[in-house]
Amino acid sequence: MLDTSECHRPERRMNFRGIRSSKFRHVYGLPVKKEKCYENIRITRNAQDGNYCAVNPKFIAVVVEVGGGGSFVVLPLSKCGRVDYNAWKVTGHAGPVLDVKWNPFNDNMIASGSEDCQIRVWYIPDGGLTSDMGDSLVQLTGHRRRVGIIEWHPTAENILVSAGYDHMVIVWNITRGVPVNIINCHTDTIFSMSFNRNGSLLATTCKDKQLRIVDPRSGTLIKEGKSHHGTKASKVVYLGASGKLFTTGFSKFSDRQFGIWSEKDLSQPLKMETIDSSSGILTPIYDPDTNMVYVAGKGDGNVRYYELLDEAPWASFLNQFISGAPQKGFGILPKRGIDVTACELFRMYKLHATKDVVEPIAMIVPRKSNTFQEDIYPETAAPTPALTADEWLQGKNAWPVLISMKTGAQTRTYKQGMYKNREQAIVISDKNNDRKFMFLSEETNPDYRQVEQTKEMKPSTRLYGADKQQTNESDYSYRPKNNSDIYDTASEKETKTSFNLGTKFQQAQKRFSAERDTLSDFDLDLDNNYKSTIKSGSNSVKVLTSKFDYRDNKYVEDTEAELKRALKEQNKLICNLKDQVEVKDRRIQTLEMKLKLLMTNNTATNMDISSSELNGYSLA
Question: Quick check: pTM over 0.70?
Fold first, then answer.
């Protein structure tokens, strides 16, 4: 007989969960057509773990294979199709480029790290490059070995973090070009690093199989724990403001796996799951707006994506994008550059491993409506810094500035990055502000004419903002017969103000009015300073700042005189060389004629030429 004494009724009823409901359950990847790809780009063959690609709403940068040194191409995002084989490149590094990152607050500024142990910051003019660029805005030197990883701060302006193969992490203030902190808590090669949402903490993975959380301002080690047990590279990404981390790596049996950790306790993971047994290194990419993680393997043809949860099981597999071509890396477009009308959630730029092709892939939510979907487009990070570099270094924290995707989609920045010689710093210039400063820097031209001379001038009755002069008879009914009565009782300043006789305010109105028919010399001068054909931002700032600094003007005059003097010397040297070449040509012709005569005579006496004569001809 069945004993039911040990059977107990459960305390609560168990609900069958079934299939979990999610808005992103049916997200799929859509590669663009061939004419929208970027072809004929010689993608670098470097075997490092970098992505070698960076994208923003204006440009795409790809590290390319060159014979010597390191270079990367920068193309406008709209310039797709077949790229010219001799496209203009950024060529300033002495070694291969290992990583490139766009400034999140300036779409024209990009940083690059290289095997020459240097980090350089470049300014790309609007419209793209017009020649090979070799002059950078600033050059950061501090690493003793090659620089493999660079990251911009998510909320503070002009803060850059770099990790090198010298086991050091350096925090830079690029406006001054100096390191503000050096972190030396790592004992081996650093594989990856990631900031949290407000940039107050920095997570790193290392070859010593340790997962660390450090304070980037003080360099103190906050938490440390054992991560993946495999010998291959592991990667980490901070999961926004949730206080969790997502890592990818290998087990001790060389199985690929991912783990989810709490920043409060790194002794053991919240979740560790095995993916497969392939050998490619996995790279996680986090989207804080949709709370999704995309996992792409180097050499794989697929991209898996997961939705993160606030409770166990912490991550839910959604789907995977599968293609037949293996990938070398990915460039990620910021959220403000995607197409919200097509229900696009994410866009990746895939670097093919076997072809010279960069292929955009859009992750799309299938919905029938073409209207804005508020439930899948929360506010995203704006291209505006929440803090200055000095405020962040003093200990202040702030969350990113947010913009609405309904009105802020396709937002781009237009900031003029320049380098000031006098201050030894990078400055961000605004064209409108520069117009105001140049106007204020002009001398005031007072009117010293006497009142009697101004009586002869015909006053204008046109009011500011009126389309034409007022000619109503009622206006003349109360007007004095002689204009001299007005000038006798009014002061010079009142007269100018009432009749618009060329005061400084009216001159400014005429100069900056939108109804001007032609540009003045003042405007032409400014437009020349902001031409898109400038090779780098450092050249534009020298031109602009020279208008405000007497010492810079003197320096420009001295350099022009030296260049003219050098040009004259070079012309003289070229003329002398031409004369020498002509003399040698005539000498060669005479020798050839003598040799022909000797060959026609064909006598032994004529053919017996002494060695001394031959030496003399050769020396001549």
Answer: no
